Amino acid sequence: MKIIIVNDARDVGVKAAELVVKEVIKKKNLVLGLATGGTVIPFYRSLVGLVKNKKIDFSYIRSFNLDEYVGLNKKDKRSFYYFMNKNFFSKVSIWMRNVYFLNGMAKNLDVECKEYEEGINNIGGIDLQILGIGRDGHIGFNEPGSSLKSKTREVLLSDITRKDNVKFFSGEIKKVPKRALTMGISTIFGAKKIILLACGEGKAEIVHRFLHGEISEEVPASFLRRHKDFIVILDKEAASELKN
Ligand code: GLP
After folding, report:
1. Which of helix, strand or coil describes residue 192?
2. Which domain holds residue 175?
3. 142 Cβ below 6 A of ligand 1
4. Residues 16/4, Cβ–Cβ less than 8 Å
5. Does the annotation count 229 as an active-site position?
6. Is 136 a catalytic residue?
7. Which atom of ligand 1 is nearest to 202's Cα?
8. Does any ligand 1 atom lie closer than 6 A to the CB of residue 220?
9. How far apart are CA 55 and CA 33, in angstroms?
10. What's the rounded Cα separation, in Å, for the pair 99 and 84?
11. Are the beta carbons of 134 and 67 closer than 8 angstroms?
12. What is the 150 CA–ligand 1 centroid distance (Å)?
C-alpha cells in the first residue's frame, strides 16, 4: 500500500489523473473502474485536461462504473450515469459501446447484476479501479457489513450515505433512493490496481479508521489494505488524523 498526501482536493485529482494516464500509455485498451461523487470531480477535470493536452488516445479504453441508484434512469440528472456523462464521457473520445453501466431500471435486478459481474470477468477483469470513500467506510455502495466475498448486487443504503448524497437531490432526503446496485467488495478487490481518493476534513476520521483500525466488514474500505497494488491519495485535511 502506498499513501500519497498532497495539498488540496484539486491536487488529489491531478495526481490520480497522472497515474491513470501512465497506465493508459502502457495499455491502450485499459479497463477502468470508475467512481462518482464530489471527490472525483477534480479528478475527471484533470483527466480530461491531460487527455486533451497530451493527446492521449482514449478511444480503446473500456470502463465499468461502480454503482447506480435503483429507480433512476440514465437521463435523470441525479443518476450516476448522468454524472459520468457530464463530467467525463462527453468530454473524451471514448467509444460509448465500451462504457458499461449498471442499469438501476432493469426489470430483473439480480440478472442485471449477474450479467455485469460476468461482463467484467469476460473482459479479463478491471485493470485500474478508482474509488472514493463514504464517511461510513463504504466503497462503491458496499456499506458496513458487506462481506469480502460480495459480488455485484442490490443493496440498501445507510442513513449516513443517503444524508451525504442529499446534496445531489436538492437537499430533500425523501428523494434520495434507498436502494442501489453496486459492484461487490470481491469485484473491486479483483482489480489489478486500485486508487482510492479522499478529500476534506469530513473524511479525516474514516481515513484514519480504514488505514489504522481493524480490517473488518464494519469498515469495508479496510479490506483494501490487503490488496497488492493499492494507492491512497489524500489531501492534507483528509490526512489530518493520521499523525495521531
Ligand atoms: C457515493 C458513491 C461512492 C463515493 C461516495 C463518496 O456514495 N457511491 O462511490 O465514494 O459517494 O462521495 P463524495 O466524494 O461526494 O464524498
Report:
1. coil
2. 2-235
3. no
4. no
5. no
6. yes
7. 16
8. no
9. 22
10. 10
11. no
12. 19
* Residue of the CA atom closest to atom 4 of ligand 1: 132
CA distances from 135 to 14, 94, 206 (A): 23, 32, 6
**pTM, 2 dp:** 0.97
Q: Which three cell numbers stand for residue 155?
A: 443493496
- The cell for 36 is 462518482
**Catalytic: which of 143, 164, 235, 237?**
143
- Look at residue 240 and tell me if it is in a domain: no
Domain harbouring 194, CATH code: 3.40.50.1360
With residues binned 3-state (H G I as helix, E B as strand, rest as coil), the percentages for the chain, rounded to 5, are 40, 20, 45
Between the CA of 141 and the centroid of ligand 1 the distance, in Å, is 8
Q: What is the pLDDT along the chain (244 residues), one digit of tens a residue?
A: 999 999 999 999 999 999 999 999 999 999 999 999 999 999 999 999 999 998 888 999 999 999 999 999 999 999 999 999 999 999 999 999 999 999 999 999 999 999 999 999 999 999 999 999 999 999 999 999 999 999 999 999 999 999 999 988 999 999 999 999 999 999 999 999 999 999 999 999 999 999 999 999 999 999 999 999 999 999 999 999 997 5
Is residue 242 in some structural domain? no
Short-list 186, 224, 221, CA closest to 207: 221
CA 59 to CA 182: how far, in whole Å? Answer: 26
What domain count does the chain have? Answer: 1
Determine the distance separating the centroid of ligand 1 and the alpha carbon of 132, expressed in angstroms.
5
Ligand 1 binding pocket includes 33 (Cβ within 6 Å): no
Atom of ligand 1 nearest to the CA of 157: 7
**Cα(199) to centroid(ligand 1), Å:** 11
Atom of ligand 1 nearest to the CA of 141: 8
